[in-house]
Structure formats: structure tokens, C-alpha cells
Amino acid sequence: MVEQRCWPKMDLLRSESMQLVQLIIPLESAHRAISYLGDLGLFQFKDLNAEKSPFQRTYAAQIKRCAEMARKLRFFKEHMTKTGMLPSTRSAITNDIDLDNLEVKLGELEAELIEINSNNEKLEHSYNELVEYKLVLQKAGELFYSAQRSAAVQQRELQVDNHGEGSIDSPLLLEQEMITDPSKQIKLGFVSGLVSREKSMVFERILFRATRGNVFLKQSVVENSVVDPVSGEKVEKNVFVVFYSGERAKNKILKICEAFGANRYPFAEDLSKQYQMMTEVSARLIELKTTIDVGLAHQSNLLQTIGFQFEQWNLLVKKEKYIYHTLNMLSIDVTKKCLVAEGWCPAFATDQIQNALRRATIDSSSQIGAIFQVLQTKESPPTYFCTNKFTSAFQEIVDAYGIAKYQEANPSVYTIITFPFLFAVMFGDWGHGICLLLVTLYLIIREKKLSSKKLGDIMEMTFSGRYVIMMMAIFSIYTGLIYNEFFSVPFELFGPSAYACRDQSCRDASTAGLIKVRDTYPFGVDPKWHGTRSELPFLNSLKMKMSILLGVAQMNLGIMMSYFNAKFFGDKLNIWYQFVPQMIFLNSLFGYLSLLIIVKWCTGSQADLYHVMIYMFLSPTDDLGDNQLFLGQKFLQLLLLLSALVAVPWMLFPKPFLLKKQHEERHQGQSYALVDRTDDPLEIEPHYDSHKHEEFEFSEVFVHQLIHTIEFVLGAVSNTASYLRLWALSLAHSELSSVFYDKVLLLAWGFNNTIILIIGIIVFVCATVGVLLVMETLSAFLHALRLHWVEFQNKFYEGDGYKFHPFSFALLGNEDE
């Protein structure tokens, strides 16, 4: 629900009185007037240019400008997020920011940031290339050095063998010539670089196949990950050196390196050149590192400067875009000097809106003031309830079913009490209620901090419904005290039990039962009932009958609300031919059942209520016998049965014929006064429009009334039975709690072992929190929700209205671009 400041007395039963208003605003003060109305947040604009596309509207260029500035701000926010910065929430608020100056400033900052990023990317690219080059120089140098050393060792061994005597192991003549004559040795070329370790095996295989084995490949593993200059990501790589012979082999190798994304780097065989290149690369790396650090510091300072004003700039751009969107909904006067606006506002806000328009005229130095005039209309106004942080959550529960029709009775007035109470009937345990209350008190105490944070979806819903859960917890403590259950354990809180054993040893307690020795336990269920043989039958009977009483009471409240609706809208047909027969039918059957339950409780009678209700229909004239609870019961049952039978045709037949008669009289011009029966045209319902009188179909009206009658008659039975879920869920909650206590906690206690006891306590806590405090809470919440939406609200609530969505800057803080 829209939470606004409410100047009049808050009244949730009927929505605020609304009026359709026309505003004629001079062009020079239009922007400021819309801005002040946005600050006020009590005016809903109608789109007077619905037939035009967004690009054909007057302020399309300004919206485009705002969208471009919003894009730049998102660009800044992305970079702040990447660097781990957050926009400052304590930015200096200055009211002299001009949109044109802001546009220029954002453009300059964007250009500067793009230039810094571009330079940093180039420097990072060069730095990563030099890091790879240094690795190639190190690893390839090690390969060449080890190869030269092993070649020198082999050459010395051959020379030693040549000076000795010839043997079968001596090299052949050709080999000797090649060794002794350097001019006849073959000169090999090589390519060095880095390749991804994942691709190294495939790279080697492809090289071998492409050159038919006429290459020699050496690889060396790089221990740490390397930032790839192209992708900018950390990759595990290997340094490779490929030796080849011939230009064709070289071309193939170069193409394969490109295909595999292998970065190639030059390498000199001469040791002095290698040392010189290594020195140059190391010096260049130090210089680049220093330059990159300076660039990042400059970028950080720039982003800090932006972050300090970011929230203020962002809010300004959002406001301007919102204002221009609203201005596009206004139509231009024929003189092209004024803008005409139409929209809805609460009647109590008339003075505030007029003051805002006058202030806009003065601040913009306009010669002409804005005109405020109320329009007469038959259009149905939007529904607006003025709520606060406590009532808004309950209003959202009702709105999820349907938005109330204009000035229809609002169920949330009663939901504030009945919803948590019906929940507590199913969840009655004052131990569990205290746990829920502690959680919600934490959320309420820290609501200022938590409301500014981004919570998860489930936590967000829990936080928004914190006051609903608080009421549920308070009522659960109350019903838990009535049921006398604290984690299923009874306590003698309000005095000693009224029952005791027949003797001190209590040996006959399981056979002869207990006797009453004191006055009745003053509040709730006597603790002695717990753990006895008759506990379940007694509690079943109590909770089942209590569920019926609560259900009939709430359904009667719903029908009573339909009377107040009909009286408010001046609909006498609904009072006499809907409200009266519905009350008669419901209370002739289930109101009478509720009376029997109360009489049986008060008198202690052993009468069978099932037998009484069944034979009230099957054999209404038979003698009641032992099932008679009071004098005149038989006559009363006959009277109520006849009343219920009369109520059905009373609901079905008169209303369609009377509607037909009204239509015919209106069509003949005999009762025009019915159309203009009120001075306020907003109270005329849309279905009384003159165009619809011509389309009156008696058959459709009769079938609709027939469906409504059948639905109510069958619903009276099914809805009453539906309230038995209060008994079923209360029993399930109690039994689950008892099982966890008896079979987990007491069982672990009986072993006299500390470890088993600790494990038992942990299991008990986890089961209580997971099953009873989470799953059972959700289950009882959903069942209470169904009882309100279906069993209660369908008696009177139409819910076919539409919500009041005012033009308000207060909503901008919750919107993401």
C-alpha cells in the first residue's frame, strides 16, 4: 500500500473520498508544478496522449537526454562495483544543481574515465606481454643452456674416443666429417612462445601431424597462472620452443600458433643478447608497474569523486526523467501556452495541491497562475487507503485478493485482529509464540538499519510482514495459555489443578480416574488433562466445537458487512433480498448449532448434537428424547427449518423481477430521479449507465442470481466445514510438539549420558525450529489466509477496484533503473 503522510483522521473502513481534477498549467511553470506535485505525492495523472507513441510526444527529446545521463551513471556504478567502491550515502546535498550543467559534467567525467580505462588497458596489455616475454626468456634460456651443456659433454666424449683405438663403437666416416666440419652441419630455426596448458597436448599432436614429424618440440611448465594479454584472464600456460627446418615448416608452425592462440616471442641464441634482453624487460616491467599504479590511483580518485555525488545525481536524473514522463501525459492547449492535466486526488488534498501550484507559479516568476477545477464524472475512482507501517502489511494481505471497489467496506480493519487470532488458534503454544515474538522484536528494533539494506526474497517478505508476525506471536501466546502448552508441557500458572487422585499413591489413576477436589481451573485447560486417557477426546471435542463457533461468528460478520455496503451505496434490494435471507438461512442452521454447543457446555448435557442436527432434517416432528437440551426445542427446530426453506426462494426470485421492473420504469421515463438520486456523481455505479439499460437481459440476471443463491446455500455448509481446519491444525501442532518432547528430549534424558543428551537437545531444537517454527508457521499462515479470502471475504467483498498510484518521488528510491 502507498504509505503517505495523512492529514485527516485515518479511516480504514472506507477508502478516501476521491475527485477527478483538471489542472491548467502555464508552460513556464509546468516543470516546477509537476516537481512540487511529485514531492507531495497525492495526485494520479491520467494519460491524455494515449494514442501517441513515446517518440511523438512533446518531451521525447528531454527523456532521451535523461536516459543518456542515466546510462552514464550506470557506467560509473559498474566501474565502482568492479573496484569494490560503494556510492556514498552521505553526499553533500546541494539544491543548485542544474540539469544542463550536470549533463556537461557527466560527459566530461565519462570521457576522462574512458581515457583512463583505455590507457590502463594498453599498459596492462603491454605489462602482461612483458611478463610472458620474461617467462619465455627464462624457460627457453634454461632449455638452450641445458641443450648446449649436454652437446658439449657429448662432443668431448667423441673427441676422446677419436684419439683412442678404433672399435666397433666408433662413429662412421660421415658422422666424423659432420662433427669435424662445421660447414656441413644443418642450421635449424626455432619459434618460442607460450600456449595454454589445456591445449598443449593437442598443440603438440597437430604440429607433429602437420609437419609429418619434422619438428622438435620442447615444453616447460610455468608454475603460476599467467594473465593472458588478449583475454585479460588468468590462464595456466607452458613455454614452448619448436625447432624446424625450412620455410614451409615455419609457415605451418606460425599458422598453428595463431589457431591455438599461442603468443610468440623472439629469442636470441647468444647468451649476451639473452642477458641484455632480460635486463631490458625487467627494467621495462618496473616502469610499467609504476605507471599502472599511478593510473589506478588516478582512476580511484576520480571514482571516489563521482561516488561522493553519485546518489544525488542519480536521484536528480530519475526525478527529471519521471517529471518529463508525466509532462508527456499532459495535453497542450490550443493556444500552445498551457498544459492541461487530468487526474485523481483525495478530497482532503485539495488545499495542499493548490498551495503547491501557487508556489510553483511564484518560484517560476510566471504571470499566470495554474487553474485547479473539479470535474464531474461517472467514472469509478481509484481506491486509496491511507496506511502506516503497521496497517500496510494487513492491507497488502487483502489487496493480494483484490483491490477494494471505491469506498467499499475494507476487510483489513477486521483482518488486523481476526487474521493473527485464527493463526494462533492453529498455532497455540506460548513457548513457540515467545520464540516468534523474539524474532519479530529483533526485526522491529533494527527496522531502520534493515530497511536500507538489500535482503533476500524470503527475508524481504518476512521483514515487510514483521508487524503481522508480531501480532500472530502475541495471539499465539494467548491461545497457548488457554491450551496450557509450553512446548507441549502444561504448567500450573494460574493456580493448582482442580483434580487429584483418589488416594495418595495414585495407583488407581489409570482405572478409576481422577476426582475434583478444588474449584475449576481459573484460565484455560486444566494441566491435569495432559497425559490422561481422555486428553485427546476432550481436546478434540473442545477444539472442534470452538472452530464451529469461530467460523459461524466470522461468517455472520461477513454478512453484516454486506448490509453496511448495501446501506452505504443505497441499494435496498441487496438489504431486503440478499442480506436478510442470508442471515436467516445461515443462523437457522449453523447459528442454531452454535447455540446448542453453548447450551451443552453450560448445562453439561450428554445430548448427541450430531443426532439432533441430522434428525432436524430427516424427522423434524419426532420426539427428541434424551437429546432435548431445553424446553420448546422441537418447536424452535421446526420454525428454523421452515425459515431456512423460505430463505432460499427469498434469495432467488424477488431480486431479478424487481430489477426488471426498475428497468422498465426507467426505460419509460418514470423514474429518472433514481439516476440522479445523489449530488455526488462518483457514487453512481458504472452499471447504471444509460447505455447498459438498453442491454438488460432478464435471463442473464436470473441465472446470475440462481448461481449466487446456490453458491451461498452450498457455501454455508462447506465454509462451516472449512473452519474445522482450525481444529485439525491445532491438533497436529500439539501432537507434533508432544512427539518431539517425549520421543526426542525425554528419551535422550533417560539414557543418563551427557553426549546423548547433547545430541538429543540439538535434534529437539532443530526439529522445533525447522518443523514447528518454520513449516507449521507457514502452514497456519496459509490456512488463515484461505479462511479470510474465501470464507470471510466472499460474503461481502467484491474486490474489483483499482489502486491509487500517485505521482510521487518517494517511490523512486525503491526503483532500479
Question: What characteristics describe this protein?
Answer:
single chain, 817 residues, alpha+beta, 5-stranded antiparallel β-sheet, 4-stranded antiparallel β-sheet, extended
Q: So what's the overall shape?
A: extended
Low-confidence stretches: 1-5, 176-180, 670-693
* Straight-line N-to-C gap: 22 Å
Helix share, percent: 55-70%
Q: Count helical runs.
A: 23
> Averaging pLDDT over every residue, what do you get?
87
Largest sheet: 5 strands, antiparallel
Structural class: alpha+beta
Approximate strand percentage? 5-15%
Q: Calculate Rg over CA atoms.
A: 43 Å
The number of distinct β-strands equals 13
Commentary on this structure:
The chain crosses the membrane at residues 421-445, 466-483, 546-564, 576-599, 635-653, 755-775. It is a multi-pass membrane protein. Residues 99-126 form a coiled coil. This is V-type proton ATPase subunit a. Essential component of the vacuolar proton pump (V-ATPase), a multimeric enzyme that catalyzes the translocation of protons across the membranes. Required for assembly and activity of the V-ATPase. 59% of the residues lie in helices and 7% in strands. By secondary structure, the protein is of the alpha+beta class. Helix 19 runs antiparallel to helix 21. The radius of gyration is 43 Å and the shape is extended. The longest helix has 65 residues, at 99-163. The protein is built from 23 helices and 13 strands. The strands form 4 sheets. Strands 1, 2, 9, 10 and 11 form a 5-stranded antiparallel beta sheet that branches. It has a 4-stranded antiparallel beta sheet with strand order 4-7-3-8, sandwiched between helices. It has helices at 27-40, 60-82, 99-163, 173-180, 200-210, 247-259, 271-327, 350-363, 391-401, 412-426, 430-445, 447-451, 457-464, 466-483, 535-568, 572-603, 609-618, 633-652, 654-667, 690-693, 698-722, 725-749, 754-792; strands spanning 18-26, 44-45, 189-196, 216-221, 226-227, 234-235, 237-244, 263-265, 331-332, 338-346, 371-375, 499-500, 515-516.
